[in-house]
Automatic annotation (TrEMBL):
Organism: Clavibacter nebraskensis
Entry EC no(s): 2.7.1.26, 2.7.7.2
Official protein name in the record: Bifunctional riboflavin kinase/FMN adenylyltransferase
Organism lineage string: Bacteria, Bacillati, Actinomycetota, Actinomycetes, Micrococcales
Superkingdom assignment: Bacteria
Pathway: Cofactor biosynthesis; FMN biosynthesis; FMN from riboflavin (ATP route): step 1/1; Cofactor biosynthesis; FAD biosynthesis; FAD from FMN: step 1/1
Length: 129
């Protein structure tokens, strides 16, 4: 990011995912595979989701969701903190501010939910929100 002079970002259409985040209590905005921009290495990031003139603090996942069985495509998905939004079919920009951790496969839902809860706490600390 420092070499670019700005934080890496990706822009794309929000599409329907597998609804796993919603089932876990962390609904995410999934970007279409055709999203354009600088997608960082797989992991969890603190950042921002921009929808038009609105900007929201977000915990962002980049990767294949290795906790769940099967080979999956690499996806970018953002959990917007403290908001319930319907972003389907919106063109949004996701800005990656800081890497929180690498991508990990967890032994079931409960350890994953605990980690996602911690990811949100760490995202708040990074973004000051």
């Amino acid at each position: 990011a420092e070499l670019l002079g700005r934080a890496p970002a990706v822009r794309g259409l929000v599409v329907h995912g597998e609804k796993r985040g919603r089932e876990l209590g962390f609904p995410t905005a999934n970007l279409s595979p055709e999203a354009e921009g600088l997608i960082p290495a797989d992991g969890v990031y603190a950042g921002w989701l921009r929808d038009g003139d609105r900007t929201y603090p977000s915990a962002i996942s980049v990767g294949t969701n290795p906790t769940f069985a099967g080979v999956r495509p690499r996806v970018v998905e953002a959990f917007v903190l403290d908001e319930t939004l319907d972003l389907y079919d919106h063109e949004v920009e996701v800005v990656f501010v800081a890497r929180i951790r690498g991508m990990v496969a967890y032994e079931g839902r409960e350890p994953l939910i605990a980690q996602m809860t911690d990811d949100v706490v760490r995202t708040r600390a990074v973004l000051g929100s």
